[in-house]
């Protein structure tokens, strides 16, 4: 359990079962409900669905929606807070239709709404958010079409709030609202002085891309007043960054936001909502710390700080408690999906090596290295052995370049060198003190497990911003993992790798995995990929979107599940079409070449037909390795 810290990042959803398989509890309030991941994999195989793939646990999505809403409701009650809570899900975090539909459905009892940050997202939320009670919040930069759509949504009786990101947007909105005779609901986004901590800290502070300064907010309120629309100003919005690692930033932003709200109220602008944006973090590495992949607080603490923080200021300033809005995306979606990939090979640290038997007339450098391996078992001063071996290896390389030793002798020296380092590594394993240079040995001697997926498609943030995602074997976790390794993907790019892992001692560049058995598939799960990762990946090397399976648990048998839907990933044809190729003319071109070979007698007609079909099948096939 400690090796992969499953319980720590699993948040009640994931744990290691007694049989060593990863188990999922899709609703932590009902621990009878438990799915064995191995059974899910077996069913996927039985259905003939190809790996790698995304597995979505829709029940987890529903659980997170309910958890966030209930946490707010309970805290409001406990704090005797008079305003309510009306959350919205920002679809940019995961726009997949099935995900958004599930969230809307699970959120219906709470009047949970949607947030859009672009015109395409607005068109989406207009169609999906059919509940007239829930909010539709519109952030991001807007043009005339955007405003018209927002006002159409108002005409259709929706609670659609246009959040003004810069002053000129307000002028545009007022003009079109007057033209159409529709009263808008207006929000203003405040450029906060408090900055979040973590990778998205630049969403706050003076240089933030979005939002109005205090004087711009006052001007905006007065502008609405001048146009007889003062009562349209209903919402104050702020968002100081995603994945807030330190709860202090949340507390500070609430204190600042609550004061702005109160002052606007006192100036006569009766705002009804305060929207605290997103930012609720996920403990990706299970460390519960302020490092970038974690957070030092729980959802409960986050909600309590918002509710109590707002209440305190409002009571002191003698203004009504506003309805609280939050736009959590990461916390809603991260847990529900994971990527399952197969390990398709092991790249050993230094190859297999060659035979190092003594031969007549071998060079003294080879003999020197061999001598070290002969004495190492009885030698206490490992540092001396390490230094000598390193020096001989360096000398050997020079000697080879000067044609003093042969390629074969160099290979022998390298083979012996890595054998010596292997022995040193074993001896220092439990030592109290390990010199700095030797600490690198675990990494230097580790393998690379080749995994059938693309980091750029399925785990973009690990590459782009060093985000840590939990990676664990889905089976055999009751066996000691004996192979230290990092993971590499199948793209032709040396950045296509994972080399930051959760370990017993913090973050490590290697992770222990099990040895590969020739007759057994070894599956790894990349977890917490439901937020951003799912939709931000690119098609580097033309590896396309993954197949997806959507898993639901059975109501009548909590240990059972069913694949509700399989969504095909990209075929080669799909990705080629996006890149402006015409797969059918490509097939024609290859067929023509084959036909020419047949005509010239260089290929049998029957063979020609087979190759033509094969090429066409590959065009229709999956972009990943067929295993
Ligand atoms: N709201 C706004 C305005 C955002 O920019 C973001 C993302 O950065 C979110 C909500 C979602 O934030 P999170 O995923 O941290 O909940």
UniProtKB/TrEMBL annotation:
One of its GO terms (molecular function) is metal ion binding. Residues 362-442 form the Arginine decarboxylase helical bundle domain. Its cofactor is Mg(2+); pyridoxal 5'-phosphate. Residues 572-625 form the Arginine decarboxylase C-terminal helical domain. The keyword RNA-binding does not apply. The active site is at 492 (proton donor). GO terms for biological process: L-arginine catabolic process; spermidine biosynthetic process. Gene3D superfamilies: 1.10.287.3440, 1.20.58.930, Alanine racemase, Lyase, Ornithine Decarboxylase, Chain A, domain 1. Residues 84-334 form the Orn/DAP/Arg decarboxylase 2 N-terminal domain. Its EC number is 4.1.1.19. This is Arginine decarboxylase. It comes from Paraglaciecola arctica BSs20135. The lineage of its organism: Bacteria, Pseudomonadati, Pseudomonadota, Gammaproteobacteria, Alteromonadales.
